[in-house]
Amino acid sequence: MYSNDNDLRLLLVDDERMSADMLLGMFAGESDATLRCVHDPDSAIAAALDFKPTVMLVDLRMPGVDGLDLIHRLRDHPATAAVPLLMLSTEVDPHVKAAGFAAGAADYLVKWPDRVELTARVRAHSNACLVARERDRAAAALADSRTALLRRTEQLAHAQAALHEAQKMEAIGQLAGTVAHDVNNILHIINGHLQLMRIENPDERARRRIDAATDGVRRGTQLTTQLLATARGNSRTSESIDLGAFLRGIDGTVFNPAGAMPPCALDLASTPSCASLDPIELQKVLAELVKNAREATSGGGAVTLVLDSEQVAPRTAQVPAGSYARIRVVDTGAGMAPDVQRRAFEPFFTTKSGVQGAGLGLALAAGFVRKHHGHIDLESRAGHGTCVTLRFPLQAG
């Protein structure tokens, strides 16, 4: 018989085959009813799992089986716990009925009721079951909708934050483009006069002062260059780099120059990791990150630069699935408080006092990574250190 989700599906558990024939006869005129009879009580749960009834009839008196115990088992099983269960018995003792209701039965029928009464009761309980299932499906759909809405809201928030960041960087770029040229011109004029003073003044004490002023001009020039690089990037061409060989090549001059403490340990994977990057900018970014890590460990700690590859599986995180070359700068220094972490990538944000830092290190790194289609993460805990992770799309070596 054809059935759909709104049909009455009746499962009878009764050891007497005559009961099954009688029940089939009573429901002969019910076109939407599908019946199944089980004569072995021990197979009742398996039959329910297969048949998916909307109502069950269970005989309380079966040889070798306690009907009340079977009702308990059906109520305890997740697949049948919510299905209305009607007791069938020749007993009219109220205590027997009470025991059945206590076991979890929804109704009690004395064998055999009038056909009209039987079909009406069975249909009422079946309809209640169908309504409950529809309610549960609606609740599940609502929960899914809420989850999807929350996910879309989070995506919108991320998009708005990205737009805000892009607008902020564009504004900084416009400001930098307006100011940098004039500042550089002024610095060149100052530097030219300082060089003339050096030539004209042989006094050693004066030369030392001129050298200090020249160094200030040099640092000012570097700052304007960094500002332009942060806001607008640069036009240098990327090239395929074997990152392991590249990092080993600049170890002594960039990561561990003479006198630098604590030393920066290199932990480089033996498998080649290649990525398309601007080597000059990469060197600047890593030098700044290692310098920051070293400053964070000034009170004691270690600095390590780690290179390996990572396969990111599809997920809901910010990093798309794919193969990445991963560079991590790890320190065991002071770490960052949560409020500092939230602002760490903002241009000009710094916790250093005086002229110790311009607050562009992590902003430069983030701009460089984005320009090369990569991703940057920061993990830190106050008192336990910091890990800055750069991921770049992996290329075939």
The Rg value, from CA coordinates, equals: 39 Å
- Let me know the number of strands: 14
Number of domains: 3
> How much of the polypeptide forms β-strand, as a percent range?
15-25%
Taking pLDDT < 50 over at least 5 consecutive residues as the criterion, the unreliable ranges are: none
CATH topology grouping of the largest domain: Heat Shock Protein 90
How much helicity do the residues have?
40-55%
- Provide a count of the helices: 11
CATH class of the largest domain: Alpha Beta
CATH-derived architecture of the largest domain? 2-Layer Sandwich
The helix/strand class is alpha/beta
Q: How is the main sheet built?
A: 5 strands, parallel
Shape: rod-shaped
- Give the CATH superfamily of the largest domain: Histidine kinase-like ATPase, C-terminal domain
Order of strands in the sheet with most strands: 2-1-3-6-7
Task: Walk me through this protein's architecture.
With 397 residues, the protein is an alpha/beta fold. It folds into 3 domains: 8-113, Response regulator (Rossmann fold, 3-Layer(aba) Sandwich); 155-232, Helix Hairpins (Orthogonal Bundle), CATH 1.10.287; 239-393, Heat Shock Protein 90 (2-Layer Sandwich), CATH 3.30.565.10. 50% of the residues lie in helices and 20% in strands. It has 11 helices and 14 strands. The strands form 4 sheets. It has a 5-stranded parallel β-sheet, with helices on both faces. Helix 5 packs antiparallel against helix 6 (204-232), helix 6 crosses helix 11 (361-371) and helix 9 (279-296) packs antiparallel against helix 11. The chain starts with 7 loop residues before the first strand and ends with a strand.
